[in-house]
Fold this protein.
Amino acid sequence: MSGVLGRVKAGWRAFQGWRRRRPFGAGMFLLPASVAVGLPPYASFRLGDVVLSIRTMGGMSALLIGALLLICAVSLWSRPQYRVAAGVTAILVSLVALVSSNLGGFLVGTALGLVGGALAVSWAPPTADEGDDDQEGGSGPSRARLTGVAVLLVGAVVGAPAASPSASSATTTAVPSGRVWVLTATALHLTGLQYHGVSTTRVGGATVEVLRFTVDRIDITSLVQVSELVDGHLGRITAPPGSVSTATGQPVELLTLRLKGTLSVLGLVGLPVDFTPDHPPPLVLPSLTFTDVTVVNTDLRHARLTISAAKITIT
């Protein structure tokens, strides 16, 4: 008997250790979220001799979103190093479920998915000096959980816009380092994107804070790029409406004062954003698309910019 109890205790300790090394609690929220979103369009309920079935146009989208939430939950347990990507995906698809899948599984699925995604994003691996006391989902101190909730709220509500630089501050194809330049476009697609935090650079003899990004490829639709030239004139480069210009590099380094536009979520939902060093992006995915975008930059390094049929004017 003692041998059985010993094996049970050893198994329980092994499970506790496994649980603390990954965002277990986040997955426990996403599992019922996947059921709450994916099940209703296909469920039937019997009340005596009466069978009730829910049949909606959102059946296929509910199945897809439920499957994505289930994949995110399994990913959090099997590949905790990808917890940020899985958590962000869970948050986004939970929001999409509101408009495409029976009001997000009658709000239950969306609520569980948002909480699970926030816990996944805020979770951090336990440090060596942390005790072995049971922490919900191994998600670290309560401050980390509050960070996850803050991330969720910041992602849903746009921060207050920062002061906008004047339109005369901007740049041209060969971007002069240390000058401010403005890019506007109807669509901006970033591939291989990484956010490296707030950095500093020199602009006009002053030190300013900027958002530092690296990206493998930038696709710019209907590009308009304006910059102040050395002699005080303004240079303006315009691509034909609807044309796609590209910037490639290994990788391209981008120093940004402000990024304002509409973030496209799976091509279904648009979220207005206004990112500055005072209000940096809470989360960044490897691939993002913005529409009706204005970007104020100070530098574009290691980039090869291709603009078809560009029109260049100097005023």
Q: What stands out?
A: DSSP finds seven helices and twelve strands in the chain. Confidence is low (pLDDT under 50) at residues 130-176. The two ends are 90 Å apart (CA to CA).
